[in-house]
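2024-03-11 09:14:02 INFO worker-7 job=invfold-0412 stage=load source=structure_tokens
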């Protein structure tokens, strides 16, 4: 199984528009972070987690021509704002229409149907995105092309819930501030954990590095990568030296092979 970080930046991305900090002006490519998203591939299946405003650019960078599913973590625009661009995948083999399967928790499904109402209208205009929206029961596993996916439930803030996903040896969690009771058990025995860490300072709706590392220390995966990073994390080259052994910063374009 192979994981590609398509984006590792927080909601505004890095650089931030107008910011003159050293991170936003850095020439190091690892400091340039599109909105958080990842692609998971095995021999017969390709899954993308989240499709934010940079989805088009991210898909162009990968060069892929098809995806089997998009899993959404929650309804925030930095995770859903690019869904209109599934149209490219719909029409890649035109006149055959390839509908894209989207999986989302109940709260996110409501937001998607509202934000993309034209894609779910009874009389759609020709060329509207073709999405097959699957509302998942986040208390139960579901499958994509025979691969079992276990939802991991958490709180993002008082108002928002968030869903992470375990796919075999990999668990991917972003925009978590808290895991719901009993959910940590679902992470036992994983090889690789991807988890959000906004910055070193604390934040009201995202784990900081300390909170992410505390979770990593409880779960004890072989390796862990931090994502959804803000410019406050500092220069990539410097921030990596502040992390414990086995914990790394994700960066856009990083590809890792995961033992199955
Ligand atoms: Zn986010
Ligand atoms: Zn900055
Ligand atoms: Zn969010």
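2024-03-11 09:14:09 INFO worker-7 stage=emit residues=260
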């Amino acid at each position: 199984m192979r994981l590609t970080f398509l984006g590792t930046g927080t909601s505004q991305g890095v650089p931030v528009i107008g910011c003159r900090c050293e991170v936003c002006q850095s020439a190091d490519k690892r400091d340039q972070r599109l909105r958080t998203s990842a692609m998971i591939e095995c021999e017969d299946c390709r899954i993308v987690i989240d499709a934010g405003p940079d989805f088009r650019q991210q898909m162009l960078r990968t060069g892929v021509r098809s995806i089997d599913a998009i899993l959404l973590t929650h309804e925030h625009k930095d995770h859903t704002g690019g869904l209109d661009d599934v149209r490219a995948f719909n029409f890649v083999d035109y006149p055959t229409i390839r509908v894209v399967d989207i999986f989302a928790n109940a709260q996110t499904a409501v937001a998607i149907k509202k934000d993309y109402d034209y894609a779910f209208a009874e009389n759609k205009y020709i060329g509207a995105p073709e999405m097959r929206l699957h509302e998942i029961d986040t208390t139960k596993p579901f499958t994509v092309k025979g691969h079992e996916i276990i939802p991991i439930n958490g709180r993002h803030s008082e108002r928002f819930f968030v869903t992470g996903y375990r796919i075999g040896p990999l668990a991917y969690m972003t925009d978590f501030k808290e895991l719901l009771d009993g959910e940590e058990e679902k992470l036992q025995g994983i090889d690789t954990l991807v988890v959000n860490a906004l910055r070193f300072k604390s934040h009201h709706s995202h784990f900081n590095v300390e909170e992410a590392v505390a979770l990593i220390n409880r779960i004890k995966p072989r390796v862990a990568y931090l994502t959804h990073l803000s410019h406050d994390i500092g220069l990539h080259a410097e921030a990596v030296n502040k992390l414990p052994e086995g914990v790394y910063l994700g960066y856009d374009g990083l590809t890792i092979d995961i033992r199955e």
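2024-03-11 09:14:09 INFO worker-7 stage=report msg="The two ends are 7 Å apart (CA to CA)."
2024-03-11 09:14:10 INFO worker-7 job finished
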